[in-house]
């Protein structure tokens, strides 16, 4: 199966540009044209119209697009299913938001292994956009993320939310927090926007990072103030290494389970969703 023809078609359907698709796939434009011609010949239909304004799917191309996405997903799943580690009955590829992996991954995997001891796990901490792309292509089976990217082939479920607390090496009062000593956080697009709206004067911070662990490292290394994930904030303030900024607003980040829409009702994925949601349900009840 020439999956590169499908990959080329889907990339071109998204980019609408032979030049951009060639750059992204690191091949020449003539290679893109040859692949498209081969696919059109195999299907017996023209898939794209080219004009000065760009490249657009034909009616036949629009009809083929959902089938192409499914073919790519099935191909990657098939490749994974025949490369199961020795001694394992199944292989599940799990993606998890970078910020969640250090704190919640252990309990999630322990419970999953208790229920499915013959299933091997491949685990990839990552960011939401990449995990959505990997779920679409069949590289991942299931993911826990901050920012769902709507797509007709993806299914998302809300698991709850996670609190972030402001901590500091310098002060316990919000009025004393200085922008030039603040570590701004962009853990997700929604979190960044909420952060900007609630604490607009802190957007002048010279440093902005996308992981709670990085905020902690910067605070302990150079001092200052910033938001960190709740369990870490409690641990470091209890140990006296950082001070809670008691009157600062608590910022909450929604957490979602994500999977290909074909898997939304399978017993394995339903169980994964329940296991992944337990830490956040427990915190909601605190």
UniProtKB/TrEMBL annotation:
GO terms for molecular function: DNA-binding transcription factor activity; transcription cis-regulatory region binding. Transmembrane segments: none annotated. The keyword Nucleotide-binding does not apply. CDD domains: PBP2_LTTR_substrate. SUPFAM superfamilies: Periplasmic binding protein-like II, Winged helix' DNA-binding domain. Coiled coil: none annotated. Belongs to the LysR transcriptional regulatory family. This is HTH-type transcriptional regulator GltR. It comes from Pseudogemmobacter humi. The lineage of its organism: Bacteria, Pseudomonadati, Pseudomonadota, Alphaproteobacteria, Rhodobacterales.
């Amino acid at each position: 199966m020439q999956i590169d023809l499908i990959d080329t078609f889907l990339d071109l359907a998204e980019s609408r540009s032979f030049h951009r698709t060639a750059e992204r796939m690191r091949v020449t434009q003539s290679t893109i044209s040859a692949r498209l011609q081969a696919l059109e010949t195999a299907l017996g239909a023209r898939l794209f119209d080219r004009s000065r304004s760009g490249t657009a799917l034909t009616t036949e191309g629009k009809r083929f697009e959902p089938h192409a996405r499914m073919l790519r997903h099935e191909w990657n799943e098939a490749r994974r299913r025949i490369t199961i580690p020795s001694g394992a009955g199944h292989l599940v590829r799990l993606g998890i938001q970078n910020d969640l992996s250090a704190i919640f991954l252990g309990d999630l995997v322990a419970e999953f292994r208790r229920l499915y001891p013959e299933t091997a796990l491949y685990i990839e901490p990552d960011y939401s956009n990449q995990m959505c792309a990997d779920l679409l292509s069949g590289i991942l089976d299931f993911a826990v993320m901050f920012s769902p990217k709507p797509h007709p082939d993806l299914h998302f479920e809300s698991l709850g939310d996670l609190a972030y607390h402001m901590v500091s090496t310098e002060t316990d009062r919000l009025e004393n927090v200085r922008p030039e000593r603040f570590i701004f956080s962009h853990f997700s697009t929604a979190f960044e926007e909420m952060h900007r709206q609630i604490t607009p004067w802190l957007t002048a911070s010279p440093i902005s990072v996308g992981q709670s662990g990085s905020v902690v490292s910067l605070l302990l290394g150079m001092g200052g103030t910033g938001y960190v994930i709740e369990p870490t904030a409690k641990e470091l303030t209890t140990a006296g290494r950082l001070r809670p900024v008691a009157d600062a607003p608590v910022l909450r980040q929604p957490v979602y389970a994500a999977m290909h829409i074909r898997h939304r009702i399978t017993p394995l994925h339903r169980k994964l969703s329940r296991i992944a949601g337990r830490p956040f349900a427990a915190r909601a009840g605190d």
